[in-house]
Amino acid sequence: MLNLSRPTDLEKILRLIKEKFSGEPHLAYLTFDHCDIIIFGRGDNFQRYTSCIFDLCYAGSLIPEDIIAVYGFSNRRARYNCSEQETFRACIRLGIRDYAALDRFAPKCGDGSDARLLQGKKVYVNWLLGRNDISLCCPNSSLPWLNQVRNALIGSAGGNAWYTTYDLIVLMKEDSHDWRDPDYPARDLKALEKEMVGRYTAFETAYIRHYRRLTAGGDIYYPDRVWCRWLKESSWLAVSLIGNPLSSDFGTCLVPQFLDLLEYGQRLFGKKGRTLSQQELETIHKNFAVFFSNTAILVDSLNQTNRQFVQVPAFHLPSFEVPSQIMAYYTAMAYRILKQEGIFLWPVHIAQAGQYPQRILPCLGAVPGRR
Question: Which range is least confidently modeled, 49-63, 77-91, 122-136, 245-259?
Fold first, then answer.
């Protein structure tokens, strides 16, 4: 599973996949999720595939942002009854619940060494600190042997699981590659930063000026300075997220939200000849609070599959809804359509008229009775 550093590298990396994996059975797919490309391979030689993967990802000029490799066995067990074509070092990590069952599963050798016999091969036991309890390291494991161990582990449970976790690490010899330093060009966000600052300045000016008009009427009103500071810092943070390849999807979704929010607020408080009442101000602040809450939920929802989600079985997300790249793609396309058509949909139109498609700016209610 590959996550690209730059979306513009997609076509080039697809051509490189065909080139580097030309001698091995493989299929490449595009995906909406944390990773951009998934490469499926099938074979019986780890070394060949690891060489292809590392030659693709780290020996060229296109260095991926992230890469995750997993493997599985076919259900056709006869496939792995062949002779060993390659040997490699492997480490099986187990969380143990019943140590007596471990001794029955991997009995100790009779030669007085620290090794144990497991499916005809010697393994060396090490205690672990962390999620697992022990590791069984085999210096000359093979695909048929790993398959036998897997089947033996499944068969040894017998309804009373004596182990709680199972992880496998396979170590392959490093081939000779011409490693290159990754090239991550800096992203120029000056224009976007300038636009965001301009939107916020116009909003804050209209907001403060409106409260001054209210105070001039005889009553004393105070603008919410804490709220303004939060809005300012959050809008700048959204821009900075786009500049980081790890969080560009977050920024793509959040920046249009804040730009529209600031423009909406500037029009709402800056309309000449209309002073909002206290009840209307309370409604506005309430609706803006809903926006802030939904923005936090959006960030949680964007925390889609990543390295930890794939590799840690017990990892659970607080929100598991729409993958981040689908949301980023939808947000970017909707925002582009609105800009090209010159449309600015006030939320009151959606709530009262019901004649427009749903706005990408969520849950911004409007002042009652206004159109």
Answer: 77-91
What kind and span of H or E run contains 164? strand 163-171
Statement: residue 97 has pLDDT above 70? yes
For 30, the 3-state DSSP assignment is strand
Distances (CA, A) of 85 to 69, 82, 154, 294, 333: 21, 8, 25, 55, 51
- Model confidence over 329-343: pLDDT tens digits? 777 888 788 777 665
Picking from 137, 191, 370, the residue whose alpha carbon sits closest to that of residue 271 is 370
How far is 346 from 279, CA to CA, in rounded Å? 20
For residue 280, give the amino acid letter. E
DSSP helix/strand/coil, 81: coil
CB 360 within 8 A of CB 257: yes
Selection from 252, 263, 270 nearest residue 198 by Cα: 263
Helix (H, G, I), strand (E, B), or coil: what is residue 204? helix
CA distance 327 to 299: 11
CA torsion angle 117 123 124 128 (round to 10): -110
pTM over 0.90: no
Q: How many residues does the chain have?
A: 371
- Token pair belonging to 244: 């980081």
Give dist(CA 132, CA 16) in Å, integer. Answer: 38
pLDDT band of 124, cuts 50, 70, 90: very high
What is the DSSP track for 43-57? -S-HHHHHHHHHHHH
Residues facing residue 27 across a β-bridge:
40
Side chain identity at residue 311, one-letter code: Q
Band of residue 229 on the pLDDT scale cut at 50, 70, 90:
confident
108 secondary structure, DSSP code = B
How far is the C-alpha of 202 from the C-alpha of 270, rounded, in Å?
9
Beta bridge partners of 28: 39
3-state secondary structure of 215: helix
Cβ contact 193:241 at 8 Å: no
Q: How far apart are the first and last CA of the chain?
A: 49
